[in-house]
Amino acid sequence: MDSPKAAPTGARPLSPHLQIYRPMLSMMMSIVHRITGGALYFGTALIAIWLVAAASGPSAFATVQGIYGSIPGLLVLFFYTWALIHHALGGVRHLIWDTGHGFEPRERELLYRLTLGGSVALTLLIWTVGYLVRGGAG
């Protein structure tokens, strides 16, 4: 039996990478979907901390509310809301694909744009309604 020869390391072809590929919306949305999935782990920990603080008593709850109500805390919560909605809409996009629809280039592009625009619009809507329900600035 002949033993297989190992290919010289310098002669083997390399896979294309980001320096070769032109960034496309589909590529960017795939990357963002993965990032938002990871961010949701962090945001879920924030919700757990909030719930534990609420169960621990008024002092602990006031401390967490103070942190989450600060400008940096509100920014984190705002982007958590966006990540949650964006990831959910990405899941709906994949559900549509699971039915065998939306694979044509125009349809894919439309689904990507709807996911992105819808996540921004729904996040702004949720935060606007929340702001108004709490009584606005006053």
Question: Any overview of this molecule?
Answer:
- The mean pLDDT is 90.
- The chain starts with 24 loop residues before the first helix and ends in a 5-residue tail after the last helix.
- The radius of gyration is 22 Å and the shape is extended.
- It has four helices and no strands.
- By secondary structure, it is mainly α.
- The relative contact order is 0.09.
- It has helices at 25-56, 58-68, 71-98, 105-133.
- The longest helix is centred in the N-terminal third of the chain and has 32 residues, at 25-56.
- It has a single domain, classed as Up-down Bundle (3 helical TM bundles of succinate and fumarate reductases).
- Belongs to the cytochrome b560 family.
- Its cofactor is heme.
Task: Identify the notable features of this structure and list them briefly.
138 residues, mainly alpha, 3 helical TM bundles of succinate and fumarate reductases, 72% helix, 0% strand, Succinate dehydrogenase cytochrome b556 subunit, transmembrane
Outline the secondary-structure elements:
Layout: H1 25-56, H2 58-68, H3 71-98, H4 105-133
Helix pairs in contact: 1-2, 1-3, 3-4
Protein name: Succinate dehydrogenase cytochrome b556 subunit
GO molecular function: electron transfer activity; metal ion binding
Transmembrane segments: 31-55, 67-89, 110-133
